[in-house]
Each structure stands twice: as C-alpha cells, then as structure tokens.
Amino acid sequence: MALEFLPIPLSWVVLIVLPVLFYIHSLFVLLSLSLLLALRRRFLTSVLSCLILWGLLLVDVWLDLNRRRRRQLHHHLRSLPILQPGLALTTGTTTYCVRPLSMFKKMGVAGPKPYPVIGNMMEFKNGLWDIELQMSRVKEFGGAYGVFGGMRPAYVVTDREFLREIFIKQFHNFADRSASTTALEVRPMCRALTDLRGDVWKIVRTTISPSFTGGKLKLMTDILNRCADQLVDNIGTSTRDGAACDIKELSSAFTMDAIAAVAFGTDINTQETPDHPFVVNAKKAFGMDLKNPLLWVYLILPKITKPIMESLQVSLMPRDCVNFFSGVLSQLMQQRQAGGEGRVDMMQLMMDAHTMRDEEEGEGGEAGGRTRGRKQALSRDDVLANGIQFILAGYETTASTLSFTMYNLATHPDVLDKVIREVDDVMKDRDTVDYEACKKLEYMEMCIMENLRIYPAAPRLARVATADTKIQWLTVPKGMLMDIPVLPIHYDPERYPEPDKFIPESLPIHYNPERYPEPDKFIPERFSKEERQKRDPCDWLPFGAGPRNCIGMRLAMMEAKIALAKILRSYRIALAPDMEVPVQLSKYTAFVKPEHGIRITVEPRNSGGD
Predict the structure, then answer these.
(1) Which of 186, 279, 413, 569 has the fewest CB atoms within 10 Å, measured from its CB?
(2) What is the pLDDT of residue 370?
(3) Residue 550 annotated as part of some ligand binding site
C-alpha cells in the first residue's frame, strides 16, 4: 500500500517506521549470520551479506512509495541523520552477539551449537530436571564441554578428575560461586554467604561456622524434638478417618519452625498457622522459576541488565519478601541488644561479630574495622542477608529432603521395614531422638543419602575461575563459569550401579550408570560405610564438595533424622491412592519440588510396635 493512503503525517512515518525497520534489520542480520555461520562462512562475508539484505529491504520500501511522497521522504531523511548511525549500531550489536560464539570452537572444546543472543538457553526448554537430555550431552561431548548461557560462556563439567581439581586440589582458583561482572550488588542480599567472594567469604564463613559444631548441634536436639512432635500431631490430625495429607506442606511448616528456633531463638509456630507471614513470604521467594522474564533477560544479557537492576536496586528475589525478613531480623537484633540475652546460636554469633565491627570502627574507622583483629567483623547487611538466606535454605531444601525420603520409603516397603526396625531398636530406651541416637540411625542415613542422590535439592552447582588456570587439557580463563550438573553425576552407572533404583546401601554424577549401576533405582545400600569409602567424594554432590560445601549439611541431616524417627515411631506410611508414581517434578524450579505435592496415608503403630 502506498503511503498516501495512510491517515498520519509523513514525519510520523519517518520517526516510527524507521526504528521498526532497524529492528527488523537486526533480525535479518542475526538470522543471516546464524545461517552463514552454520555454513562455516567467514565473519566478514556474513557482515557483507547482511548489508546486502539491508539494502534489499530499503529498496523494497523505497519502491512502495509513490513519486510525490518519495520526494518528501527524501527531504526528511536528509534532515534526519539516523540511517548511518543506526546501521553502524545494528552491525556492531550483531558483531557483539555473534563473534563470541566461536570461542569454544577456536579453543578446540566440543559442545552443542549456540545461537545468537540466547546461546544454549533452549537446552532448558524442558526444564532444569531433564535427565535424559543432560545424560545425552555428557555422552555426546564428554565430561567437559562448552556452552553459552545467553552471551556468557561456561564449561559444563561432570568428569571425576576435573571435579576433584575444581572442588579440592585447585580450590584456590575456583573458590567463588559467582563472578563480580555478573553478580548483582543489590543490598542486603549481595552480602549472603553464597554470593560473597574471596577473603570476604572466608571472613563470614569463619564467623558462622561455630554454629554447626557437634557441641552446638547437641544443644539443638531438644528444640528439634519439640518441632517434630508437633509435626507428628499434625500428621495425625490431617489423616484422621483414613484421609491423605500432603507431607511436603507439613514438612515445610516443620522446617520453618525448626530453623527459626535453632538459628534465631524465636518460636513462630507456623505448624499451627499455615498462613503465617513467614511461610507466605518464603513461598513467594521460592516462587521464581525459569518462566520469569526478568530472569531470562538477566541470564541472556547480564552486562546490560546488571547496571540497570543495581541502579534501581532490583534483585531476582521479590523486594517485599526481603523487606519482610529484614524487618523481622532487625527487630530481633534490637531485642537482643536491649535484653542482653546470652544465647549461643547463629544469630548471636553474627551479632557479636557485628558489635566487634562497631568497636573496631570506633578505633580505626571503616577500613580499620574491616582489616584489623581477627577479620571477622560483620556489617548489618551481612547479618541480615545471611539470616534471610539461612531461613530460606533451611526451609525449602530440608522439607524437600524429608518429604522425598518418605516418598521413596513408601514406594519401597522392604526398605521401610528396615528403617522402622532400626528406629525401634535405637529408641527402645529413649523418649527423645538425641544426638547419640541420630548417630546410631545409620540405615536411615543411608536412605536419606540415597534419596538425595535421586532427588538432590538443587540440579546444578557453580564455581568461577578466579585466575587463569589449566585442568589437564582444558584451558580455563579467569572469570569462566564452571557449570556442574548434579543429575548426570548421580545417575552415572559407573558410580552407581542401577542408578534408577533406590539402594540406600550404595549412596555413592547422580544418575550416571557408569558411577551408579541402575541409577534410577532406590538402593540405600549404596551408602553403607564400605561403599562410601570406595567412592570419590565428588560422586555425591547434593551439598556440594570441598571447602565451600553447604555449611548447614550436618544440621539438615540431623533435622531430617529426628523428624523421620518421630514419624516412624508413631506411624507406618504409605502413598495415597491418588498419588502419582513416579512423582512428577516441577520442571522449571531451581530447587526440587513435587508438581502436585506428595500425598501419603498413615497407619498408627502401637507403642513403637506394628
């Protein structure tokens, strides 16, 4: 259609249509470059071809204008110097988006073919828990290959020797979980332990670590037993008259109460009030998944979105959730400072370090507070960020571990019988599951570990090279992301025979039949002491490995043991008739989650006996 039929001024056409044309041109450029690169043409040839396409596009538009309007448009274009800068900008953008994609090819590193802008992000179109795809990639490209997460390159590593170098032998070169060029500096959460780097991470880790010693864990058992008793009561109430309950929901309330009590010395009783603000905000914080557009934009174009998000102080976690937990923890800090409580929990250890920082600053200012003494001084943001992170991590991951372990026990009655017999034997002279009882529940521990092999809390781990280094034949430049998918390791038949079976005695990445024969099977015997001694420490990674493993691992295991022992002392569990088997996982969540919950029924036991 000629422009003379358009009911708008020609100047509007110039201002509106030209930017649209440049956008279309960008798509033409990216498309043609992708096709030409696929045909292994030279980069300059690709650029010239794109310029030709742009010229043809302009000619097509030009011919569509009638003669009179064409003269007017020519007059506007002469007075509007937009064509050449726009063309240069588009070509530059195209070069920026396409040229890095040949990086791994030049380095001689195999990997799936990336696409402009999105890289290999389409690998996640079926979610983060696509075991078949991840296993096929390892089989096709080996234990170390290259991918692009948007525009950012990364090595995907599952090889045992490479993992040992990253986690242990060369830990000093891979101590960080995120790079300074991509990590969001949005307070207070940028001060959380998982996001800290270098010496700052060491300072905070050293300060918090005493919260998880054996002596501190012993002091927590009474609190955890009280929370577990409430969980048992809730299960009984929810399953009255043979009804089924969602054990994932009940477990989440239990873990929230437990973490608030043992880490912060506060009773919130979410098990009695399911709609408690703690639970509501925690669920909202975990509600973000791969369907979130902001996450995709951030992952694809971190160098562009990072400064914008930081200037606006926008993080990937909902701001109202951060504000809620920050307010609660700030109030708790004020109460303790005013009351002079003598608790010895994680909150108090961080507060003591915060007070020490204030005293040191009084002597030597901000810099002095950061460098003098034991180097354990924490800021207020340090206390808040790590308090929030500990609440959220202890809430979701432990609840998933507990509920999925019960799912596996319910689907393997023979294993369940063994666990019940062990619980009865350990608890015959005890009313509470104390620290010593937890250590004696060895077969239960095998079951929990085997469950974490099959259903690890998180599907991927990450480390970043802090210096140029080399691992065998692989050159690793500074800033390179090392992406470690846990599922192909845990389902490796070499590590775990029959990896799809639940075998508690085996527990030795997690679905790799070379590491775990029959990796899809639940076989607790994989994790007997003898079997564990045979396996590499990097074959089981639900808590990571090396100096930067999960700081709360021992607490999480003890919490799950106490809850399971209390439940199985009172009930025999079974899957509800309407429960799907195998359980369907939420595809796009960053943490393992049942799509429709885990529904169980229970049969009361008589004083610990069947």
Answers:
(1) 413
(2) 36
(3) yes
